[in-house]
Design goal:
8-stranded antiparallel sheet, alpha+beta, 290 residues
Length: 290
């Protein structure tokens, strides 16, 4: 039952004053412990957050008539690939957060005797060493209590996500005669870093490899930012599966295990990359009679 008041306006003012009384001693009240964040928009977007991975179609080895492994690079500086470098949802940020949180496994890209290319997912890279793959080492001086320099040690510098401008993809192109489908299957993704030794630029090399079938469970819940429509509902898994990126081939499987740059230089690399791409497309085209 509401209490009646002879001075209604005064009682209303008093109740409002009590409700808006400031908390000068910063005491925690039950009302201030948990505050539900308002919806940032006209509706709550939960489709991508609760999305599940659509599994690949099963492929038997006896049904594979043709298989070709290629390595390609995605340059984020190209206009079509700007969505992968958006400050709101960078691909490198998604990968690094998942690796540091233990949701993804990073595999070392260092060449070994059993893995000359360093992309066979043979050596697990501890999460604590992932950051050191990107940041240059710096000399940190050490001082005693008197402020005198007594030595120094090497430490990793700060990681700048904008420094990652390329990603390398390893994928298999297969023709499944059971389904009559010629399709690519991404196997791994690697961010590229510039390698310097003795003041010499050795080019860009993979920092580490991520096993894509494992990464799909993370990518499917990460929305991408597109320039034309905010309601596309596309995740990183969607744009990789739909091949919404521009890339060029840097290597195809061959007996000598050579990269394109090992036997081509200059503009001939681009021509060789296009030749490999055209051969893949021609194989599918030549399978059918019209």
């Amino acid at each position: 039952m509401k209490r009646l008041c002879m001075f209604g306006a005064f009682c209303l003012f008093a109740s409002l004053a009590n409700a808006q009384k400031p908390n000068f001693n910063n005491s925690v009240t039950p009302e201030a412990e948990e505050v539900e964040r308002p919806v940032d928009g006209y509706f709550k977007q939960v489709n991508i957050e609760n999305a599940k991975v659509t599994p690949y179609a099963n492929v038997r080895d006896v049904d594979v008539m043709f298989s070709k492994r290629v390595w390609r690079e995605i340059d984020l500086r190209e206009r079509m690939n700007h969505v992968y470098a958006s400050p709101k949802a960078r691909l490198i940020d998604v990968i690094m957060e998942a690796v540091l949180a233990g949701e993804l496994t990073a595999y070392d890209a260092v060449s070994t005797k059993s893995d000359p290319n360093g992309d066979a997912f043979g050596t697990i890279l501890p999460a604590g060493q992932v950051m050191s793959k990107f940041a240059d080492s710096v000399v940190v001086p050490e001082f005693n209590d008197m402020g005198e320099e007594i030595g120094s040690h090497m430490a990793s510098g700060e990681f700048n996500p904008d420094s990652v401008t390329k990603f390398q993809i390893k994928e298999d192109w297969i023709f499944d005669k059971q389904r009559s489908v010629f399709e690519p299957r991404i196997i791994g993704i690697a961010p590229m870093v510039k390698i310097k030794a003795a003041d010499q630029d050795l080019g860009e090399q993979p920092a580490f490899w991520i096993y894509y079938p494992e990464a799909r469970h993370v990518f499917v819940t990460k929305a991408v930012t597109t320039p034309n429509n905010d309601a596309t509902g596309l995740s990183y898994d969607d744009i990789f599966m739909k091949r919404l990126f521009s890339s060029y081939i840097v290597k195809e499987s061959n007996p000598d295990d050579l990269r394109i740059k090992d036997y081509s230089s200059g503009v001939d690399r681009l021509y060789e990359s296009e030749r490999v791409k055209k051969e893949l497309m021609d194989y599918e085209h030549d399978l059918w009679s019209y």
